[in-house]
Each structure stands twice: as C-alpha cells, then as structure tokens.
Prior knowledge:
The chain is mostly helical. 83% of the residues lie in helices and 0% in strands. Keywords: Membrane, Transmembrane, Transmembrane helix.
Amino acid sequence: MNIEFKSRIFAVTMALLMMLPVILLAFVLDLPYKFLQWEIITAFVCFLAIVCLVVDWALSRRRFENKEQ
C-alpha cells in the first residue's frame, strides 16, 4: 500500500470519528429525533470525509512541492 492510499483511509476514518461526538452530544442534550435522521448524519459524514480528503490532498501536494525544491 502506498502512502497516499493510507492517508486517504486515515482521512475518512477521522471524518467518521469526528461524527461520534456529534451523535453522542445529540443524545446527551436530548435533541429531537429529526436531528438524528440518518440522511442528515450520512450527509454530514460525507461532507467531513470530503473536507478531510481535500485537506489531505493539499498537504500531500505541499509535501511534494517541497521535495522538488
């Protein structure tokens, strides 16, 4: 496995782990059921995964540019 693939797996895992406190906080604060609909949770996880992947891509690009110099 190359390092880019490992970092992408790490980014998606981090997005999923970031979602756990949101779900736990919703249960602790007893938020309405509408907040916990799976469509909203899935959309938020996908958004976090995309953000993590973009950040990972930007950081790996910067590392690559620094290696060339």
